């Protein structure tokens, strides 16, 4: 069977894989340990699921461990997550005590691995406090932050910062998300995996079948937004944009989002969206299960234009996913959408339903421009936002940290 690296070479080209091999050369046999809090669910686990086998194929002794805890631990880390993203939510001393104790237990359980690794990547706040128990460590520890800490609730950030300060360096997704720290800070944006169910090529027949099953016709242009039902994603603004377009051209709208039953606000937003959509048969509000990756893939591929009209956004992986599928994206002018959607190149950034509707009409009227933008979009993701780029940056960082200026790597082009 084809190795993973070979499968990626089929997408990104052999040169990219050659470069990964060259970068990994000095790291052969080195132990790199990643620690987060879950093996499944969420973007971090999704990426680690691929990064670890890729590193291993490159000759690195990569391992992945998770920290575990009880209900109170997860309640605390959930609160921490929300407060770091701006919620003014104090965490009780007893919950913080659980956080600290759970980190001690996990440290004791993982001690040999944590101290035996050459480099340790700790992801997000859950396992962050383990570092305070290994003052005698000789290895390098990096804190990899996947969340937006641009406007944290200060008391919670101050608490966590005491741990983060002990790391050799930190890694952030976007400069806007970071807080100043007295340590080297690196920017490594997220990426998508082109081989995952969400992003792999799908047979045309399957795309058609999914659309048919959702009642979406392929004879009328399809606009789609895939998002949790969240006000920051502005689903109401999306419906307004669609209505403005519909005055001039027939069009359908798909609003696809996850089941909202465990999120009271999500359910409320979903109900508002359904009310606002009314009985318009051209608006398809789809509630999808969390593992509907192929369905989302098919919806994105079966659409003519993808919308991500967020009012506030993190990186916006749905945008990356759509661009990768060669779709022009009309996105809100915010967060990571600004990095990905470039006017007239990969789509358009907008702030109002009127602006969105103008851009939608323009793109619907000019299929050849849609095609060119779609091509640019795919190439842009190929060069910037695939997992191989993220791996290259992790490897470069590790080489730099471990060898300093001793190791000089000159990437060579191989004749083929
Ligand atoms: N997603 C999903 N099901 C849904 C809605 C979203 O699987 O019903 C996925 C989507 O494809 C993307 C991720 O969840 O991979 C959302 O990431 P993004 O950065 O766009 O937004 P967030 O939800 O993190 O604010």
Helix/strand structural class: alpha/beta
Quote the average pLDDT. Answer: 94
Contiguous low-pLDDT stretches (5 residues minimum) are: none
CATH topology of the largest domain: Rossmann fold
The CATH superfamily of the largest domain turns out to be Glycogen Phosphorylase B
How big is the Rg? 23 Å
Helix content bin? 40-55%
What general outline do the C-alpha atoms trace?
globular
Biggest sheet details? 6 strands, parallel
Tell me the domain tally.
Answer: 2
Please count the helical segments.
15
In the CATH hierarchy, the architecture of the largest domain is 3-Layer(aba) Sandwich
Strand fraction band?
5-15%
Bound small molecules, by name, code or SMILES, are:
uridine-5'-diphosphate
How many angstroms separate the termini?
Answer: 23 Å
Task: Please give a structural write-up.
The strands form two sheets. Strands 2-1-3-4-5-6 form a six-stranded parallel sheet, sandwiched between helices. β11 (329-332), α12 and β12 form a beta-alpha-beta unit. α4 (71-84) packs across α5 (93-116), α7 (204-213) crosses α10 and α8 (235-246) crosses α13. It has two domains: 4-191 and 386-406, 3-Layer(aba) Sandwich (Rossmann fold), CATH 3.40.50.2000; 204-384, 3-Layer(aba) Sandwich (Rossmann fold), CATH 3.40.50. It has helices at 4-12, 14-24, 43-57, 71-84, 93-116, 154-164, 204-213, 235-246, 264-277, 293-301, 317-324, 337-340, 353-365, 367-384, 387-403, and strands at 31-36, 61-66, 119-123, 140-144, 169-172, 185-187, 222-226, 252-258, 283-288, 305-308, 329-332, 347-350. The protein is of the alpha/beta class. The protein contains 15 helices and twelve strands. The model has no long low-confidence stretch (mean pLDDT 94). Uridine-5'-diphosphate is lined by residues 198, 226-228, 256-258, 288, 296, 314-318, 321. Uridine-5'-diphosphate (UDP) binds next to β8 and α11.
